[in-house]
Design a protein that fits this description.
single chain, Bact_Acetyltransf, 7 strands, 210 residues, globular, seven-stranded mixed sheet, alpha+beta, 26% helix, Aminopeptidase
Length: 210
């Protein structure tokens, strides 16, 4: 799964801020959800997308809390747990994602506020695959084309790291999210897995070239 508003998918992910049980083919804990993004709107000029920096900790924390409030089923962490977590832990997490080839996060910022976020992590046990996770757009930016820009940033990082494939997971029945990712070139692999925190839910896996 990934972290996008409930209107979109999610992706099995890296251990976010705590331990997460891994399963074959996934990196472990968050999801890669994505808001409905039907393509560029002429009334919005897209902000640039860049990799996070250590100095972004407060801004990333703010959008993390927004994600959890907007789409609680898309994450293993609860809003209450995240709000109670020391800022130093967020800062260390952001610093870790600001460099290197194993995990990364990308953001789009407007007037000092992060309005879009997407992460990538090397898939457990699959050397050529990056898992897309923590995909989220603030409501005003859904349908703007920003989702594509964020995923493209993850894809470019993945290629540079020698991983030519992207993978994510979407809750079965979240057709809006599936369509949004299909527009970005993802296809259903046919793999179905049990949701890690809500066992009655299933997730479908989607993949594309980075």
């Amino acid at each position: 799964m990934a972290d996008v508003p409930a209107s979109i998918p999610q992706t099995a992910i890296e251990p976010e801020f705590g331990p997460a049980a891994e399963r074959p083919g996934s990196a472990a804990a968050d999801r890669a959800a994505g808001p409905a993004d039907s393509g560029p709107r002429p009334d919005l000029a897209l902000p640039p997308v860049r990799r996070v920096r250590p100095t972004d900790a407060a801004r990333v924390r703010a959008i993390r809390l927004e994600m959890l409030a907007d789409s609680p089923l898309a994450f293993l962490e609860t809003l209450a747990d995240a709000a109670a977590r020391p800022h130093a832990e967020f800062a260390a997490r952001v610093a870790g994602m600001s460099t290197g080839t194993r995990t990364a996060a990308f953001v789009a910022e407007v007037d000092g506020r992060v309005v879009g976020h997407a992460g990538g992590q090397a898939a457990h046990g699959q050397p050529g695959v990056s898992v897309v996770f923590a995909v989220y757009l603030s409501p005003d930016w859904r349908g703007s084309g920003l989702l594509a820009a964020l995923v493209d940033a993850v894809a470019a990082w993945s290629r540079a790291a020698g991983r030519p494939e992207l993978m994510l997971e979407v809750v079965v029945g979240n057709d809006r999210a599936v369509r949004a990712y299909e527009r970005l070139g993802f296809v259903d692999t046919g793999v179905r897995v049990t949701h890690p925190t809500v066992p009655i839910l299933r997730e479908l896996q989607m993949a594309r070239r980075a």
